Amino acid sequence: MSEIRSLYGLEILDSRGWPTIKATCTLSSRAYASASIPSGRSTGTAEAWELRDGDQARYRGRGCRQAADNINTIINQALRGRDITSQQDLDQALCELDGSPNKSRLGANAILAVSISFARAQARERGISLYRHFSELLEEPVTHFPRLTINLFSGGRHAGRQVAIQDVLMVPSGASSIDESLVTMSNIYQTAADQTYETYGMRLLTADEGGQAPPFESSEVMLEAAVAAIEGAGYRPGEDVHLAIDVASSHFYRDGQYELDQRRLQPGEMIEHLCRWRSRYPIVSLEDGLAEDDWLHWPHLCEALGNTTLILGDDLLCTNPERIVRAIHSGACNGLLLKVNQIGTLSEAITAHRLARQAGWQVTVSVRSGETEDDWAADLAVGWSADQFKNGSITQSERLAKYNRLLEIEAGERLPIRPWPRVLKPGHTRHL
């Protein structure tokens, strides 16, 4: 049991220069901790609501002063001096205080900042590492480090929409540690930068998450360049390194069709197109291969590729337990992309995680395009024994903060890294 002494919220800036929230929780024991909350650019319509000020004179309406003020007034007044029995107790109190179905009254950004800062303060009060505390909240032991999926090239909303798909990521599947994974990725990243200069005569330009963003003519050219970078760095595509693709199909889905690189594809044709990519390139993971509301065709995609490929739901699921249950029963995918700020509290994210595990799915813990230098997501990925950790590229301090935290944990923990791939046969479901 912990008594909250005070809660303080502050508007800060994320990695894109847009406002976000930082909260500080002080307990009666005088243990205190802060947590900074990310923000997404490519967001699903079912995500919890980020509260923005709407004042066009400040940050084009994206200010977060009201969300910060909600922490300092409504939330602080309601919870100050209250004995909190558990993380679940705190998160339930926050949801009841908000009272809306999507956290729009107080703001999911304010609520999550308090949820994470309380967890970190409790870990400090107990004198244990944050990842150990996260593990205890989940009630499962830490068994391994996550396999990294690291951005190499970006398009879509993360870059200049020069191609439709959002990200091509490297999976250092042959690496046996976090350290070796980062060495592999660094070699590939620098090789890609050299090849980009040779091909396009341009200096290195990066997207929101640090991925390179050359003016590719099509998504296929981007995939070919990724394979060339792997080979140019001295690695074997499909053996030492695989590819993961964030298709982000919702952003080019119009009137029941997919507008992919100047082509209009029916859903069945889109699935066939992804199957051709899978046969041609060493792809082991497809994220949001179809649009978030194209529920009819997701099971067909999973049936076609789910025995060889991780079919990840991001916008489809939004870390929302109700949508996860629907996807399990329909056989829509075999993996959850877990973003805590999509649902708004740690406790609700735990529910989402458990549902995915009960179904036999893999879980990829992911950060957002608008990040801060806070590293709690790395502790979460380790503490919840994620299968994968998606953190962006290996440039930019908001990304490196998490990778450096993983290196720090690895230096003190003798844990294996998650082997890849390990996916289910398509259509696998369990009764919940």
Automatic annotation (TrEMBL):
Pathway annotation: Carbohydrate degradation; glycolysis; pyruvate from D-glyceraldehyde 3-phosphate: step 4/5
Enzyme Commission number(s): 4.2.1.11
Binding site residues for Mg(2+): D246, E287, D314
Cofactor: Mg(2+)
Signal peptide (UniProt feature, chain positions): none
Keyword vocabulary terms for this entry: Cytoplasm, Glycolysis, Lyase, Magnesium, Metal-binding, Secreted
Subcellular location: Cytoplasm; Secreted; Cell surface
Tree of life domain: Bacteria
Domain Enolase N-terminal: 4-134
Classification via Gene3D superfamilies: Enolase-like C-terminal domain, Enolase-like, N-terminal domain
Main location group: cytoplasm
Enolase C-terminal TIM barrel domain ranges (all copies): 142-417
Active-site residues (renumbered): E209, K339
Catalytic activity as recorded in UniProt: (2R)-2-phosphoglycerate = phosphoenolpyruvate + H2O
Binding-site positions, (2R)-2-phosphoglycerate: Q166, K339, R368, S369, K390
InterPro entries: Enolase, Enolase-like_C_sf, Enolase-like_N, Enolase_C, Enolase_CS, Enolase_N
Co-factor note (free text): Binds a second Mg(2+) ion via substrate during catalysis.
PANTHER family named among the record's database cross-references: ENOLASE
Family: Belongs to the enolase family.
Function of the protein: Catalyzes the reversible conversion of 2-phosphoglycerate (2-PG) into phosphoenolpyruvate (PEP). It is essential for the degradation of carbohydrates via glycolysis.
Protein name: Enolase
Organism phylogeny: Bacteria, Pseudomonadati, Thermodesulfobacteriota, Desulfobulbia, Desulfobulbales
